[in-house]
Every structure is written in structure tokens, then in C-alpha cells.
Automatic annotation (TrEMBL):
One of its GO terms (molecular function) is DNA binding. It comes from Planococcus antarcticus DSM 14505. InterPro entries: DNA-bd_dom_put_sf (IPR009061), MerR-type_HTH_dom (IPR000551), MerR_fam (IPR047057). It comes from the Bacteria. Residues 9-78 form the HTH merR-type domain. Keywords: DNA-binding. PROSITE patterns: HTH_MERR_1, HTH_MERR_2. This is Transcriptional regulator. The keyword DNA-binding applies. The keyword Membrane does not apply.
Length: 250
């Protein structure tokens, strides 16, 4: 009898090996009435039909989508394929969002490391914890200005060329400060000219926006409040002193 049964059905042990699911899990699904064997031998041995096996495969699939057993039970009762696909779509969207945020955090850290050469754990924790906070820009900029800035400003989480240009500009000024190069020197004036060129690329022909934004950037507190990388006062002083130099006309 058992040989006849085994040709059409699978025992718990056989099913466990084929589907790579523990015997304990299969028995648990049986106990809670989720997937029960179609036949039981006199000695208590359980046999699963093709329909039972398919049902168990469905449960395994739904479990891989992070659905609870109760949700899986409901979906199986409804026989709704759209529910399965929607659940799968939702899970993929969550994973994509998580990966996108992880990539942004990593790029931000790489850019910060490029700027500072050394990072401390406290800075990393602060950056990641505050990356998703909502920022209130209404106190500083008009709606039109906000729209322009949010689309054009270089971002730490970006690996684009504009962000890299600004990072390199800051590093050039830091090198000048380390070497004691004067802001009114030829090198200081070339840096100022390059800053003006970059500002034009970022802000366009809008000197009012440049002035308002520069006032915000001079404040480390306001920069942090808006989620912007704070520029050190020494760099700001360098640029302001370079801008005050009277360049004689030819």
C-alpha cells in the first residue's frame, strides 16, 4: 500500500528534500491548517498530493515576499494572482527605496571624505540620521528661489561633475590657507574668478539669489538647518577678502 501511495504522493521527508523546506516547517503548516496532507497512513505517515505540493510552493513564494502566514492564507483563499503581484511590487519598491537611500548616504560620505580626508563616527551617524529630515526653506527663500536651488545646487549625495567642481574649489582654498597664500594674490584672484564662473553655472543670471544664498552659507547653523554642508569661516573670509580687492583696470 505504501509503495502505491508513494508513486502518487510525497511523504513529509521527501517533500522536505525536494522543496528545501524543513520537516518541522511542513508539520507546522499542517498543524495550523495552512497546508495539510491529502492522505494519512495508518501509522501516522503523511502523504502530499500534487495539489498539496503546489499549495506549499505558493506559501513559500508568498513568504519570500515578506507576507505573514495569515496574509498568505487570505490570498490563497481568494485565489487572487493580482494580490500576489501587488505584494511583490510593493516589496520591490521598498527594496529600491532602501538601496537608493543607501547609495545617497554612501556618496555623501565619499564626498565628505574627499573634502575632509578624515571622518569620525559621530559625523557619519549625524549625517545618516539627519539625511531624511524635512527642511524649512521658506524662512530664507521665495518659492521660486527654492525651486531653482533644489534643482541646481550641488548635493553631497550626488556624484555629478558640478558637485565635484565645488568640492575641488573648497580644497583649493584650503590649500591656499595651509600655504599662507593671500586672497589678494594672483592665485587668490583666479580662484575667485573660478568661483564666479561656478556660481553662474549654479545660480544663472540672478545676483539677488547669489547674495541671499551666500548670506545663508556664511552661517554654519543656518547651513545645517537647511541640510547644507557648512563652509568653514576661514574659507568664507578668504573669498570675501579676495572679492574686496580693488583690481586696477588696464
Amino acid at each position: 500500500m505504501e509503495n502505491e501511495e508513494s508513486t502518487s504522493y510525497l511523504s513529509t521527508g521527501e517533500l522536505s528534500k525536494i522543496l528545501n523546506v524543513s520537516v518541522r516547517t511542513i508539520r507546522y503548516y499542517d498543524q495550523i491548517g495552512l497546508v495539510q496532507p491529502s492522505k494519512k497512513a495508518a501509522g501516522g505517515k503523511r502523504y502530499y498530493s500534487k495539489e498539496d505540493i503546489l499549495k506549499l510552493q505558493k506559501i513559500i513564494l508568498l513568504k519570500s515576499l515578506n507576507l505573514s502566514l495569515e496574509d498568505s492564507r487570505s490570498i490563497l483563499a481568494e485565489q487572487s494572482m493580482s494580490a500576489v503581484l501587488l505584494a511583490h511590487q510593493s516589496l520591490l519598491s521598498e527594496k529600491m527605496e532602501h538601496l537608493t537611500n543607501s547609495l545617497k548616504h554612501t556618496q555623501s560620505l565619499l564626498n565628505l571624505l574627499d573634502l575632509k580626508e578624515t571622518l569620525h563616527w559621530e559625523e557619519l551617524i549625524f549625517l545618516v540620521a539627519n539625511a531624511e529630515k524635512e527642511r524649512d526653506w521658506n524662512h530664507y527663500f521665495s518659492i521660486e528661489q527654492q525651486s531653482h536651488l533644489k534643482s541646481q545646487l550641488p548635493k553631497l549625495e550626488s556624484g555629478d561633475k558640478t558637485t565635484k567642481k565645488w568640492i575641488n574649489m573648497i580644497k583649493r582654498i584650503e590649500l591656499c590657507l595651509e600655504k599662507g597664500v593671500s586672497p589678494i594674490s594672483l592665485e587668490g584672484q583666479i580662484i575667485l574668478e573660478d568661483v564666479d564662473i561656478l556660481s553662474g553655472e549654479t545660480f544663472g543670471d540672478n545676483p539677488e539669489l547669489v547674495e541671499v544664498f551666500w548670506e545663508v552659507r556664511k552661517s554654519p547653523e543656518e547651513s545645517r538647518e537647511l541640510g547644507l554642508y557648512p563652509i568653514s569661516p576661514a574659507i568664507i573670509d578668504f573669498l570675501e577678502m579676495a572679492a574686496k580687492k580693488d583690481i586696477p583696470s588696464n
